[in-house]
Design a protein that fits this description.
By secondary structure, this protein is mainly alpha-helical. The protein is 58% helix and 9% strand. It has helices spanning 12-15, 40-65, 71-78, 83-90, 94-100, 103-107, 111-121, 125-129, 131-134, and strands at 20-25, 31-36. Strand 1 (20-25) and strand 2 form a beta hairpin. Helix 2 packs antiparallel against helix 3 (71-78).
């Protein structure tokens, strides 16, 4: 696309006075970089993704409150992780993390294991155990 055709739509980038770096073709036909304040289809897609993430966090929070899952799942969703990512950050096998989602199993976790999760989520163990203190 030509440099003059780079979209400058209103987006969440514009509200924060941010620009996205894009590649475009200048008047001489050479590739160059230029800034874009946004592109409506991309903005819609990003807004939908953020909304879905927020819904997943809220669902996980309600499951913790209803004792259907442990705070590990809530903080994983809050930090936009999945089990594979959390496993790589904590060096805990995926199947063990899934077990740690069970409230009864979570309650019996060692301080060392809890600290691994707390470190990854950048909180303390008390916040990990009580999501109301973690918000």
């Amino acid at each position: 696309m030509k440099k003059s055709d780079v979209p400058q739509d209103n987006s969440s980038l514009k509200s924060g006075d941010f620009k996205e770096l894009c590649y475009a073709v200048n008047d001489d036909g050479e590739y160059t970089t230029t800034n874009s304040s946004g592109w409506e289809p991309k903005t819609i897609a990003l807004d939908n993704a953020i909304q879905e993430i927020n819904e997943r966090v809220e669902i996980a929070k309600n499951k913790v409150i209803n004792n259907e899952t442990s705070p590990v799942e809530y903080y994983m969703e809050l930090h936009k992780m999945d089990i594979s990512i959390l496993s790589s950050y904590t060096s805990i096998w995926k199947w063990r993390i899934k077990r740690h989602f069970k409230p009864k199993v979570f309650q019996k976790l060692s301080t060392r294991t809890l600290q691994k999760y707390a470190d990854v989520f950048e909180i303390n163990i008390n916040q990990l155990k009580n999501i109301n203190h973690g918000d």
